[in-house]
């Protein structure tokens, strides 16, 4: 193809007030404004959201899947960070 | 299905994979773990998925044409609005799928080029003409019905981005099938001429729809690996049978006849059995000799050519806005 390529954007949508934006997919657009318009057409044809974020994919810093174990292992070994780790007598009631 | 051409031979050289990584990968597939874009995957897995997802995307894009044929002649404003929404959905589905394919390392431009050059295939079904308004009913009811049969298991595909795209698509596809059935139902209980029109549409679409599921299992070349890698969950014949079993009662409800004198219910297996499918027709259509193959490609290429100025203008506008922002930033310093 002789035509120039258009940048890739990631699209995030807030499904309704009070919820956080969630990644829904990606699209190509020439700039931020056009990406927003396009995201509206492509990803919100059925009242999927009340707010859209778009960001150029190449601006996202991401963790490397190879580092997954190293990065997230500590959350598994520190079970005392979870409330269920602690013994609370039944008589105390709900805590 | 939409990726029927997968069942044709893959001629790329086979790359010897690292056995340790391959074993780990296959264990993940067996454990129903999802594979994500940056995870290690065998070359054949990547290639199969690129082919399958892009064929699926191309099918959605080409699939707009048979329906577009009826937009200006829809019988009412209600039907016209529905048809427009449906076509817009097809474009959306194509876009979700192209994005999913791109996560595997192929560019949108390459994908588009593969379609335009004829290198990539799309579903055989979209090479049939939509001759009457009843065809809009038959396409929704039968073609989208067949597509849903195939796509529901794809929501559990091992490749994360594809599975997620399929979940969105399946949610939207259900409206397509129901609106098609409604059109058929309206015609079937209408005048004698309207009912005949519905029957004629069923007659023409029934067999091509059965072919959508791809060649019979004994002739399919990719199934074993695709099953092991959890790309595919059911064989072509299994899905075809599910479709037949679902459709026969619906056709009866409509008071329409399935155009198959050999169709009978097999008490033993509990399934409807059809007569022989004419696979020579399937191969002919897939090879480029169906009723509309040339027209579909011509229209697609024309749309691409006529869209160049729009894409050029969008790029020029983006550049102009960026330059203005930059100038304003400099002026503000």
UniProtKB/TrEMBL annotation, chain A:
Stored InterPro entries: PaaB (IPR009359), PaaB_sf (IPR038693)
Xref: Pfam families: PaaB (PF06243)
Entry protein name: 1,2-phenylacetyl-CoA epoxidase subunit B
Organism: Candidatus Raskinella chloraquaticus
UniProtKB/TrEMBL annotation, chain B:
GO biological process per UniProt: phenylacetate catabolic process
Gene Ontology, cellular component aspect: cytosol
A GO molecular-function annotation: phenylacetyl-CoA 1,2-epoxidase activity
PANTHER family from the UniProt entry: 1,2-PHENYLACETYL-COA EPOXIDASE, SUBUNIT A (PTHR30458:SF2), PHENYLACETIC ACID DEGRADATION PROTEIN PAA (PTHR30458)
NCBIfam families: PA_CoA_Oxy1
Protein name, per record: 1,2-phenylacetyl-CoA epoxidase subunit A
Annotated organism of origin: Candidatus Raskinella chloraquaticus
